[in-house]
Input
Amino acid sequence: MSELDFSTRLVRFDAAPDDPHRPVATPIYQTALFEQESATAFGAYDYSRSGNPTRTVLERQLAALDGGARGLAFASGLAALSALCRCVRPGEEIVAGDDLYGGTYRLFSRILEPAGVIVRYVDATDAEEVRRAIGPRTRLVHVETPSNPLQRVVDLRAVSSAIDEAARTLGVERAIFCVDATATGPAVQRPLEHGADVVLHSATKYLCGHSDVSAGALVVKDAALGDRLAFVQNAEGAGLGPFDSFLLLRGLKTLSLRVERQQATAARVAAFLAAHPAVRRVHFVGLAGHPGALTHARQASGPGAVVSFETGDAEVSRRLVEGLALFPITVSFGGVGSSASLPCRMSHASIPASVRAARRLPEDLVRLSIGIEAADDLIADLSRGLSAAVGEKVESGVRVRARV
Ligand SMILES: *Cc1c(COP(=O)(O)O)cnc(C)c1O
Output
């Protein structure tokens, strides 16, 4: 099957292994228990925390799509990351990129660090900096690319080589290289093909695509690491339930279709914003001149559909997002419906303001998630919204900085 195109494999897979009725959609095995043949004869399943047929189909599909040896589905992206972090014990270290999802930062700083895990933040766009930060007790290197919300691009091959080199120099085992690929998903970028050991997805975003499931996934290159993580999934009990697994399988089938449309519209929106006088700076890896564009093009097939931009004024940004008609204000992204957010007030508010400032996260940043609506409608709404947001500022007597 693996010679088939990605978009074909999204719909052509074994939806119901061993089912004599051959359903084309995976049944929801809404059961917690499976009866044993006898007290000593065990079947493939016994208890749904440990394994459930609906989840198994999903996990195999996740592994196939990212090209891994094993996929594991969890109750959320953070549950998946948390399971991975069990590979790091107190006194051991994580080297992490410094432009991360707010919830990831909270997990590291409020759960792992108080428990004795050491986290070193580095600018992961510089592989040499990653190499220097790795020590003999580093067990995990964790990055996002393109990062959220600033779209900084990490060169995956370069970081993977840096991890190898550090391990060789120090004479220790290679740290696990995890890439959070939530911002694009496997239709656009498959980090295991570029030197990553583990891919993390918040499946709540593009994989599900309909903003109706919370879920997360780990896909690993190496079967032995997969076994370790499956043990954690069962021991801690954060595996995804059967109904949510079904919904995710359903959403996945249209992943390519959705993302192709969303990316094309996002590129148009980014170009519109880049040319708008009330917009100071656009962060979109698909725009010519983006510092990470070339690296991104080597490891991904498209720019994704999240567009961030600065207006130069946090109040203008607030008025803008509150005034848009087609972009509900939501913390998340990746769904078929567009949405807007102010990361510093919302998804990244769990990062202290001083840390946000040190990481150059602008307080006026607006993040748009582009859905499948008509591009012209979205652009008209943004155009109207920007005029109103800037105009109101004039009425309140404050000078508008005009840029032509
Ligand atoms: C949303 C998100 C997460 C966390 O996933 P949940 O499903 O919300 O737990 C992790 N990383 C990134 C980049 C995200 O956007």
Notes: The longest helix spans residues 375-395. The two ends are 53 Å apart (CA to CA).
